[in-house]
Write a structure and sequence with these properties.
Strand order of the largest sheet: 1-15-13-7-9-11-12
CATH class: Alpha Beta
Order of helices and strands: HHEEEEEEEHEHEHHEHEHEHEEE
Oligomer: single chain
Radius of gyration: 20 Å
Shape: globular
CATH architecture: 3-Layer(bba) Sandwich
Helix content: 10-25%
CATH topology: Glucose Oxidase, domain 1
Largest sheet: 7 strands, mixed
């Protein structure tokens, strides 16, 4: 089963293969330039910092769908322990963490999603192995994100707490994103990163982990295939959401032949930076209080060699 013909044509229109060279491993990370960093810095006014990360915890976002995604497990490896070979009277505690790299707030590497045997820029999927992970397009190639971030707050635009109040499977289109940008009085520029708020994170914050992860009868609001050309047209470096799935569920085709089509086309064809589980609730309130929707966005993905995703603790500075 291949992508439906209209989605294959869409993928061809938005493809960035070869745009930055045949050996490129950054994708739209190339749009994070000195200029975009200066534009982000210029938005800082009062210096208020807002964390966009969820806590790493054993009872976190993962609930078993899909299988083999594990919440962080903390193991103490030394407890108030003296090193008998070191001088002094100090004692120290060390620990390790075991987790899926996409278990919480994260950025996907360009090795994360493929179809038809190819990753971004025509890279064969054979570069990903069980023993070494991604030998190309791994998380160590994800760029440090220092740019202007723009919050596109769709629930606030529509006067609801979350898009699920409009439709449990609300599909966000380019027109929706334009309306949110217009309402915020922001013009999207090349190298910006957009943070798309749906309001889904409020379920996780309220303790309903299952509702956050799988929605209502597997209906979840999110980005639709009708938002993909908007991302390409505006040359955004990345798009991050406050949802588990990133894109709307169920997909548009009755046979689900376009399942994860937004992931596939944005990551594999565009090379777009993307990720999920970004907590945008406090940021939405801060932006509303400040009467603005742009800010300096700082996010440095963990450079885990060969990983398909990387945990990140992003911060917005207003």
């Amino acid at each position: 089963m291949g992508l439906p013909e209209e989605l294959t044509e869409l993928a061809d229109r938005v493809s960035n293969w070869g745009r930055w060279g045949d050996d490129d491993q950054l994708g739209c990370g190339n749009l994070l330039t000195d200029e975009s960093a200066r534009r982000g810095t210029a938005t800082v006014r009062d210096g208020r910092r807002v964390s966009l990360a969820v806590d790493l915890r054993a009872d976190g976002i993962q609930v078993g769908q899909p299988a083999r995604r594990y919440n962080p497990i903390l193991t103490v490896t030394s407890l108030n322990e003296r090193d008998k070979f070191a001088p002094g009277i100090w004692e120290g505690t060390d620990d390790l963490i075991t987790m899926s790299t996409c278990a919480a707030t994260h950025v996907d590497a360009l090795s994360h999603i493929s179809y038809d045997g190819q990753l971004y820029n025509g890279t064969p999927t054979s570069v990903v192995t069980a023993s070494a992970g991604a030998t190309r397009l791994g998380a160590e190639h994800l760029p440090d994100i220092v740019t202007r971030g723009v919050l596109l707050d769709l629930p606030r635009l529509k006067g609801v707490a979350g898009l699920d109040e409009v439709d449990p499977g609300y599909s966000i289109t380019g027109d929706d994103l334009d309306a949110a940008a217009d309402a915020a009085g922001v013009r999207i520029e090349a190298g910006d990163v957009v943070l798309v708020r749906t309001g889904e994170m409020r379920h996780y914050r309220n303790g309903d982990r299952h509702r956050y992860a799988v929605g209502v009868e597997f209906k979840l609001p999110g980005l639709s295939v009708h938002s993909i050309e908007w991302m390409h047209r505006h040359d955004v470096a990345g798009a991050f959401t406050d949802t588990y799935a990133y894109e709307a569920f169920p997909p548009t085709q009755p046979d689900w032949s376009d399942c994860l089509a937004v992931h596939m086309i944005q990551v594999r064809d565009m090379g777009l930076l993307q990720g999920q589980n970004w907590d945008l609730e406090d940021l939405a309130d801060a932006c509303a209080d400040a009467g603005r929707s742009d800010f300096l966005l700082l996010a440095a993905p963990e450079p885990i060699v060969g990983a398909a995703s990387a945990p990140v603790a992003p911060v917005a500075v207003l």
